[in-house]
Automatic annotation (TrEMBL), chains A, B:
Protein name: Amidase
Gene3D superfamilies in UniProt: Amidase signature (AS) domain
Classification via InterPro entries: Amidase, Amidase_dom, AS_sf
Species this chain originates from: Paeniroseomonas aquatica
Superkingdom of origin: Bacteria
Stored SUPFAM superfamilies: Amidase signature (AS) enzymes
Length: 428, 428
């Protein structure tokens, strides 16, 4: 087995004991990239010598952090002090910031090796697409906007990568690429240094190939309660199954994935119950749209004024408020979100987690359509933690995942649920 | 009259007609700084040649923005591409970012001349204080954390400056320094590129010496409804007078300022009514504390891990959660804030604005105590727009202001109210 094939958890065991070095693991990942990236095109910036130098520095540290020696990909709209951050925008080609984004600095502080920058949809929002292809079928999208991060982890190029989610940019690509991902409770991971689109929605997330790997990153961020695992087994879990207000938009393979995951959990001894959301949730998808467009209005004003000609029409439309979002409309969307957050949290601890679709279906063909975020956007607005879990394959043999969702600040308990249910759900 | 003495509005009239150049105005401000800053110490970075070069560039532009030629001070925890951003922290001495913060880029895009960086409380949050002194009495604080920005505008060094408010860091210094300030609705001004403390609270604000100057900046940010002034006169206004849940903490001079402002408005023909807040507001001050400490936990983790020894104990305490804030406590604070925001917005349009204290009293003696933010923190959590207006003097001859507050996204209408009531309230 080559080091690049190891999960972060498996690599960590070797790294902490000194049986594997950060440099050897980094070199192995770089070899895998050299082999695969001509097809997958996950990376927008990669300097192998810089990555190796960083790994050597990590190998020399006295204290071993929770991410000690683990190579990490960073979505190219998150700042890095030693690499450019282009946001996949012609405006920011060659931009070099003076400091790391908070999440990057924290990862480095815990010993991660920042491997390179992964391609992204422009500003993680619209406009230009990433060049990245789905590792399972190069004719298909890996999803977006965290295209390169999801594909790099799925393709074995790196065990961990940062994405972001404003609509469905972290969880959906995980489903399309057949890997695990976590979008934590909004705000618990400092998003400073990632390009702003919507302050209410933007959330740093991460990809991995195992649920225990997701937990390592959560430990680095010291999420509430992470130090006290619940240790529950599948037989001790009560899982809600939620089709949600957009079930009619799910393709057959996503409907199947949800029903199959529920059936597998029930067969493994979990208590599985259908969950119908109360009436206010009928408006939650529209509320997310209003927040996105209303806040997007101010998010790109800087570029609109200073680089009007090179700013994609998608963003000029936002600034010019083409959707005619008003202040009272935005306040109304915030109010509805607040009401729904309270209603949602009140479902716990009746449930340990809620199972719901992760994407509309398989990854679409081509690069332009990165997939519909409709099964993610409501959870993003609700600020709740979500974990994507691979479940099955669709009619074209592409991966189809599900996600489990918890209450706000229930991130640590949700990771415990993921550890228990993943071997049951991800069983193909 | 020297150019530095002009309000932004008065200077704009001359600049737009070409009867004053950005360079001449900038040079005049630099002369004023040379004269006054040895005492006031408002600036943490000032390169006169760079400022003059920037002014000359502005004088050469084809299109004149709404801030054309106006010198602007930037709080030293807001990024500037051509100047260092130290955050008043030993960790970031000499830090140079590759891009402007969003608010700085927007101001430049509208023709502002970025004059220099103004001293701040460390990370606008705690730890080290600014060196800045109150222009009205060098033995006293200008308030914090936007110490240098408030003092620079009050001392005639610059007509406009950016501050930020997480507790009371914009409005309180305005009251202490006898000037005008605006804290807009949370989120309408992109705070990207300003150091994060609390994503729920952090808000970019600005200082000026006239209410119409505040409006110029609001126009640059294209606040909702700014293009349609209401044109209401004082006689057409209905003003609520709100002592709020912390009235017992107000010094006599702040209580007097509120009553005096209300009396003046009534005498000028406004309808003035006492406003008692409903019961949930009793918990709002505590909710702001929980949000501040709960979110501050993640805000300084990067520095905690990477520069532990040089990080002030204030911030180590935050990261270590010395206040033992829990996830459910934080969710409860968010819920209460959401409830109160709805209750508050429902008071409008019954009122055009609500008048309430801006600070506990006069500026305290010394540099360490930058004043109590208790009359600001609840409004920051409520996300509502606030405008500080000078009202009277305290027992030591120091300025004492009041503030008017509107509903979320009522920024433009609140600016109209400020224009109408300022000549009545600010009458000494």
């Amino acid at each position: 087995m080559e080091p690049w094939q190891l999960t972060a958890t498996a690599a960590t065991a070797l790294l902490q004991e000194g049986r594997l070095t950060a440099e050897a693991l980094t070199r192995s990942c770089l070899e895998r990239i050299a082999e695969r990236d001509p097809v997958t095109k996950a990376w927008s910036y990669l300097d192998p010598l810089l990555a190796i130098r960083s790994a050597r520095e990590v190998d020399k540290t006295y204290v071993r952090g929770v991410l000690h020696g683990l190579p990490l990909g960073v979505k190219d709209m998150i700042d890095t002090a030693d690499m450019p951050t282009t946001h996949n925008s012609p405006i920011y080609q060659g931009l070099q910031q003076g400091r790391d984004a908070a999440c990057v600095g924290i990862a480095r502080g815990e010993g991660a090796v920042i491997l390179g920058k992964t391609d992204t949809v422009e500003f993680a929002a619209g406009g230009r697409r990433a060049l990245t292809r789905n590792p399972h079928d190069a004719a298909r999208t890996p999803g977006g906007s965290s295209s390169g991060s999801a594909a790099a982890v799925a393709d074995g190029m790196v065990p961990l990568a940062f994405g972001t989610q404003t609509g469905g940019s972290t969880i959906r690509p995980a489903s399309f690429c057949g890997i695990y991902a976590m979008k934590p409770t909004h705000g618990v991971v400092n998003s400073e240094g990632a390009k702003r689109y919507s302050h209410t929605l933007d959330t740093i997330g991460w990809y991995a190939r195992a649920p225990s790997d997701l937990r390592l990153v959560a430990e680095a961020f010291r999420l509430f309660g992470i130090e006290a695992p619940t240790g529950k087994t599948v037989q001790q879990l009560r899982i809600g199954v939620c089709q949600g207000p957009n079930w009619h938009l799910a393709e057959e393979e996503s409907q199947n994935a949800l029903l199959l995951a529920a059936k597998r959990l029930e067969a493994a001894g979990a208590i599985v119950e259908e969950l119908a959301l109360p009436q206010p949730f009928e408006g939650i998808t529209e509320a997310q749209r209003v927040v996105l467009l209303g806040e997007g209005r101010g998010a790109f004003l800087q570029e609109y004024l200073q680089a009007h000609g090179t700013l994609h029409a998608d963003f000029r439309d936002r600034v010019e408020n083409f959707a005619d979002i008003t202040g009272p409309q935005l306040a109304g969307a915030y109010n509805l979100a607040g009401d729904c957050r309270k209603l949602w949290d009140a479902l716990f601890p009746r449930f340990d987690a809620v199972l719901t679709p992760a994407a509309v279906g398989e990854a679409p063909l081509g690069r332009q359509d990165t997939g519909n975020p409709v099964f993610n956007s409501m959870w993003t607005l609700l600020h709740v933690p979500c974990i994507a879990i691979p479940a099955t394959r669709g009619p074209h043999g592409m991966p189809v995942g599900v996600q489990i969702v918890g209450p706000r600040f229930g991130d640590a308990a949700l990771l415990d649920v993921a550890a228990a249910v993943a071997p049951v759900i991800d069983a193909e």
